[in-house]
Amino acid sequence: MSDIAYIIRGVLIQVADARLLLPNATIAEVLSYAAPEPLENAPDWLLGRIRWRGWQLPLVSFARFAGIADEQGGLGSKVIVLKALGGNPKRPYFALLTQGFPRLVTVTEDTLATQGDGGDLPAGVLARVRLGENDAMVPDLAALEQHLHAALAAAA
């Protein structure tokens, strides 16, 4: 057994009717919301594309993807640019619609607890957790990326 305690810098992100907990290292930038360019034949959770630093990034509503709520962008909404985990050099980033600014948090073994047995998780969610006083969901970013690539291929 190891006596090494882990300390991870995380970010709590508010989406419609839920909070997401992500590692801080996955976030490239936080932007103000601007209406995306729509994509034809895209699922309702793929809101369109935005321009960022020479890239055209797909903008995802995680709340819609997970079936939590019908999230719309608007006044007070933010867009978080995430580093893609899939290793595709043509799509190294994607964007996530959020409500307000992300909040930096410290995640330790003492402050993080898993909730539930994992049997009733929404699509794209790895776990429900409690971080201190905050309930949150840990998104399955790899699964989200796979669905995103399939949706972009179908919409092309």
Verbal overview:
There is one protein chain. The protein has a five-stranded mixed beta sheet. Strands 2-1-8 form a three-stranded antiparallel beta sheet, with no helix packed on it. Strands 9-10-11 form a three-stranded antiparallel beta sheet, with no helix packed on it. With 156 residues, the chain is mostly beta strands. 12% of the residues lie in helices and 46% in strands. The N and C termini lie far apart (51 Å). The chain is built from two helices and eleven strands; from the N terminus they run E-E-E-E-E-H-E-E-E-E-E-E-H.
Shape: globular
Strand content: over 45%
What structural category do the secondary elements indicate?
Answer: mainly beta
Which sequence of strands runs across the widest sheet? 3-6-7-5-4
Share of helix, binned? 10-25%
Give the SSE order as H and E letters: EEEEEHEEEEEEH
Largest sheet, strands/sense/barrel: 5 strands, mixed
Give the radius of gyration. 16 Å
Distance between the termini: 51 Å
- Unreliable spans are none
H/I helix tally = 2
Task: Report the average pLDDT across residues.
Answer: 91
| Overall number of strands | 11
What oligomeric assembly is this protein in? Answer: single chain
